[in-house]
Design a protein that fits this description.
A seven-stranded mixed sheet has the order 15-18-19-14-13-21-22, with helices on both faces. By secondary structure, the chain is α/β, with parallel strands linked by helices. The longest helix is centred in the first third of the chain and has 22 residues, at 94-115. It is built from 15 helices and 25 strands.
């Protein structure tokens, strides 16, 4: 089998060893073999990015527009093919895989436009005869560490703005799912970028990731992953010889509030979509369903009936609505939390069984817990699987308090027909993103993504707000 290589200084280069990328829907299917970079490879990538930096930083907005538009156009033209690769590699149903690839293409075309829209300010000084200019400049070498659950979209929303604003890139995708990042690198390698502007180093976080975190020539680090790893990233980056700008997107334990006046059908769809689609492997998943007394029993019954219609099967199979868990480790974690929930006194109302299908894979029946309190571990710790908890509350005020009683603050939602409650929740929910009568997982590509508290650190990703992380501000004075 051909080994897919790292991309360093404009060349495809082999690593020290290689790892197999296994299809979680069919463990007999190897997606490909991908080279793992060594410390020396990572250092070479950083050196190449540093060398290419000055020229790329001074490239014209039109040159950056042309490259990004070419990348986005090819992604969109190949969305079916790349979506199939994504679903085969990560396990989300094919429609979701194609949708994610489409979003990646849209991100690149959006930031092509941003490259020619970068603006500054010219102000009058408080002193006569002096001009003041405020401009934005690229950070330099930006290192990116991306997760396995969105293997095409998250690399896209980090790489595209970095290139648009004149930075050079070294990206390390999750070791579990290198295929999509490699395919993206292949497209980028043919887009006309000067050698060294973009570099791909695949492999273990303990090898490649640690090198990126501590190297003095890396100016900024954008990381998406777990809270525990994110804290290590922040500590290493700030403790490095040259302190780095850090952007962290981490976990969530996101609430969906369902009030007595909610449209039941809408509430059930929001809950099922947010909690169980894409196997619940989203940091924005609605894993805490906070439901008021008057609708609680009807909601639980209707959601249970909805769960019975979800088809858990091969991600590439027609009709599948929930694919497999990504690997054995994640499956073990999900099963561990299901056991913890039972031990804590919660009621496993439906699901939570390990499933067998035609092909051997990591299949898990979505699980719904009732009789849950917000102090239980299953209501406080991120599970990152198709496991949802229902917490009964008496009214809106209690629902709001419970929703905010968490160390996380990424996304939150409410189902209600009351403008009063919807407006109050949008104002007072302690989250970076709030949805009303919509699933809380998923935002558009042109708006900022991020949260507060333990979910995020640093400036937002996506949309025009991405400029805050990928540039630094310069104030210049001139006496004509």
């Amino acid at each position: 089998m051909t080994i897919h290589q790292n991309f360093i200084a404009g060349e495809w280069t082999s690593g020290g060893d290689a790892a197999k990328d296994i299809n979680p829907s069919d463990l007999a299917d190897t997606v490909g073999e991908y080279a793992r970079a060594s410390v020396k490879d990572a250092e070479a990538a950083i050196a190449a990015a540093k060398a290419a930096g000055p020229a790329w930083a001074r490239s014209t907005p039109q040159a950056r527009y042309d490259v990004l538009m070419k990348i986005g156009t090819e992604i969109l033209a190949r969305k079916d093919e790349l979506g199939r690769l994504l679903s085969r590699e990560e396990g989300k149903p094919l429609a979701d895989g194609i949708g994610e690839v489409t979003r990646a293409g849209q991100i690149f075309t959006f930031f092509a436009g941003e490259a020619v829209r970068l603006s500054g300010e010219k102000l009058a000084s408080t002193r006569p005869g002096i001009d003041v200019e405020i401009t934005r400049e690229p950070m330099g070498v930006v290192a990116m560490i991306t997760p396995w659950n969105f293997p095409m979209a998250i690399p896209a929303w980090k790489v595209a703005p970095a290139l648009a604003y004149g930075n050079t890139v070294v990206i390390k995708p999750a070791d579990l799912v290198p295929g999509c990042a490699w395919a993206l690198a292949d497209i980028i390698s043919r887009a006309g970028l000067p050698a060294g502007v973009f570099n791909l180093v695949m492999g273990r976080g303990s090898v490649v990731g640690d090198t990126l975190l501590t190297h003095r020539d890396v100016a900024a680090i954008s990381f998406t992953g777990s809270v525990a790893t994110g804290r290590k990233v922040a500590a290493a980056a700030v403790g490095a010889a040259v302190m780095k700008k850090v952007q962290l997107e981490m976990g969530g334990k996101n609430p969906l509030v369902v009030l007595d006046d909610a449209d039941l059908a809408i509430a059930v769809e929001c809950a099922a979509n947010g909690a169980f689609y894409q196997t619940g492997q989203r940091c924005t998943a609605s894993s805490r369903l906070i439901v008021t007394n008057g609708i609680h029993d009807r909601f639980v019954d209707a959601l249970t009936e909805k769960m019975k219609t979800l088809v858990v099967d091969d991600a590439l199979k027609a009709g599948t609505t929930v694919g497999p868990v990504v690997d054995q480790s994640q499956l073990d974690q999900d099963m561990k939390y299901i056991a913890i929930g039972k031990d804590e006194g919660a009621k496993l109302h439906w699901g939570g069984e390990r499933l067998n299908r035609d092909k051997q894979g990591f299949y898990l029946q979505p699980a719904l817990f009732t009789e849950v309190t917000n102090q239980m571990r299953i209501a406080r710790e991120e599970i990152f699987g198709p496991v949802a908890t229902v917490i009964r509350v008496k009214d809106y005020e209690e629902a709001k308090a419970v929703a905010n009683d968490t160390e996380f603050g990424l996304s939150a939602g409410i189902c209600t027909t009351s403008l009063k409650y919807a407006s109050d929740f949008k104002r007072n929910a302690e989250a970076g993103m709030v949805m009303v009568n919509l699933p809380i997982a998923g935002v558009d590509y042109h708006v900022p993504f991020g949260g507060r508290k333990g979910s995020s650190y640093g400036s937002r990703e996506q949309g025009r707000y991405a400029v805050e992380f990928y540039t630094t501000v310069k104030t210049a004075y001139t006496l004509p």
